[in-house]
Amino acid sequence: MKDELSIGRVAEMVRMNVPTIRYYEEIGLVPTPPRTEQNRRVYKEADVRRLKFIRHAKELGFDLDSIRQLLALAGLPEEPCEEADQIARAHLADVEHKIARLTALRKELRAMVESSDHGRIRECRVIEVLSRFGNQ
Q1: Using one digit for the tens of pLDDT, what is the confidence trace for 13-51?
Q2: Does the pTM exceed 0.70?
Q3: Dihedral, CA of residue 29, residue 64, residue 16 and residue 27, to nearest 10
Q4: How far is CA 118 from CA 5, 76, 125, in A?
């Protein structure tokens, strides 16, 4: 059939590697596809759409459990969107928390680097700040 795709072709189409697709099958994010008489996996266009969904969700930083929940919700098109919104809001809060931590980290690193005069280690601001922090 023309709509049957090999795992290699699917990997190209969704920009994933073959072991990743196999892993997603193993953990149940993607249904195990039927096999040919030669024992090769045979994928359909729906599998490609599902894998693209997973890839995009991963690119946005969703964890596998959240992706599993979102996939389940995607299969219920008439249900309210509240649960999907909650998953996305929780992820957004986590991202905002990480950004705040990274912003503080950048500020601290800039202060360390900008106050360094590139002298000897005994006068090194980077070593001094890190040593002082470790003793708190």
Answers
A1: 999 999 999 999 999 999 999 998 899 999 999 999 999
A2: yes
A3: -40
A4: 59, 61, 9
